Amino acid sequence: MQAGLRIDLLRAVWVLISARMVRLVLFDIDGTLLHTGGAGVNAFAKVFETEFKAIDGFHGMKFAGRTDVSLVREFFQLHQIPPSTENFARFFERYVFWLDEMLRHGKTVICPGVLEFIRDLKALPEPPVLGLLTGNIRLGAEIKLRQAQIWDEFETGGFADDHELRDQIAVAARDRGSRLIGRELSGDEVVVVGDTAHDIRCGRAIGAKVLAVATGGAAYAELVSHQPNWVVRDLRDIRAEEVAER
Length: 246
Fold this sequence. Notes:
By secondary structure, the protein is an alpha/beta fold. It has 2 domains: 3-36 and 108-244, 3-Layer(aba) Sandwich (Rossmann fold); 39-104. Helices cover 47% and strands 12% of the residues. The protein is built from 10 helices and 8 strands. Helix 2 (39-52) crosses helix 4. The protein is globular and about 55 Å long.
């Protein structure tokens, strides 16, 4: 066999093998990776009260699985506050201050099995790229994960800065992962890990597989009803190999 033909054949075989593996795993943050003791919600409330003098109607809002931008927009609508670029900037400038303050004086807890699952993914023979797919703005995500000392575990991600809609955040996260890997990823090369129906939906929006964990915003039975690829009570109940090798 000619050397050039042999090299081309080996490359073709490698592409076929690698295409059978998950190349990108994207994690939600709140309720999936960690719990902040309500610091994020409390920081929202503090800014609404101190900057916008608005306190009514806040506690009826549903935070799980939402994006920061959509939550602020909903609150502005409830209180007839103009959703201007200036008001959003004003809100988030103070939000990250109060979030950092509350996290430093609170208690952040990593969800069961998270550290072991990440470790095992990274120990695979062909480890996938690990990223984030979150409704947090990027700086808010960094503040939370640095407090838990796990920010540096992730190479890329999609955030509320990218888009107000979570499905579009998923597109941004997948595309950044593709650029890191050096080629466009197919949906079945991506796994989204999350704790709500919103995570399941946005994973499906990019054709990804979804691992749902009942450690946050939704009960186990509710997650099962949305038929993700896997449902576990926490990440101790599944092996990295089950998710990354298909």
